[in-house]
């Protein structure tokens, strides 16, 4: 499974509409509206890099109101459970 984090800049007046349309796309698992220099963060979970390219280039970027995107591919996932296990290594 490939996870991509996509930062989305959207037209301000259309942020809720853009978020809803992106959330409805196949391959998109979650969309968050956020503060800061970007408007939305979309999490994409698909089986291959080619599918990431398809979802971002052919779907997300074509949603009306999307101004720009930046895509980041996750290398490794850490959860609180994984971190607890890592810190307990060697502990007695």
How do you describe this structure in short?
About 30% of the residues lie in helices and about 35% in strands. By secondary structure, the chain is an alpha+beta fold.
Protein described:
- The chain is 29% helix and 33% strand.
- The model has no long low-confidence stretch (mean pLDDT 91).
- It has helices at residues 15-23, 49-58, 80-87; strands at residues 2-10, 28-33, 40-46, 66-73.
- It has 92 residues and is of the alpha+beta class.
- A 4-stranded antiparallel sheet has the order 2-3-1-4.
- It has a single domain, classed as Lrp/AsnC effector binding domain/regulation of amino acid metabolism (RAM) domain (Alpha-Beta Plaits).
- A hairpin with a 6-residue loop joins strand 2 and strand 3.
The helix tally amounts to: 3
CATH topology: Alpha-Beta Plaits
Full CATH superfamily name: Lrp/AsnC effector binding domain/regulation of amino acid metabolism (RAM) domain
Overall shape: globular
Instruction: Determine the fraction of residues in helical runs and give it as a percent range.
Output: 25-40%
Domain unit count: 1
What value does the average pLDDT take? 91
Based on helices, strands and strand pairing, what is the structural class? alpha+beta
The main β sheet shows up as:
4 strands, antiparallel
Oligomer: single chain
Q: Which CATH-level-2 architecture?
A: 2-Layer Sandwich
CATH class: Alpha Beta
Record the strand order, biggest sheet.
Answer: 2-3-1-4
Low-confidence regions: none
Number of strands: 4
């Amino acid at each position: 499974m490939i996870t991509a984090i996509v930062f989305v800049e959207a037209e301000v007046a259309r942020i809720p509409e853009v978020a809803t349309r992106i959330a409805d796309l196949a391959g998109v698992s979650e969309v968050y509206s956020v503060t800061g220099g970007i408007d939305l963060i979309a999490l994409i979970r698909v089986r291959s890099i080619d599918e990431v390219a398809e979802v971002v280039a052919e779907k997300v970027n074509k949603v009306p109101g999307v101004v720009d995107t930046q895509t980041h591919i996750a290398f490794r996932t850490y959860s609180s459970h994984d971190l607890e296990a890592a810190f307990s290594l060697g502990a007695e």
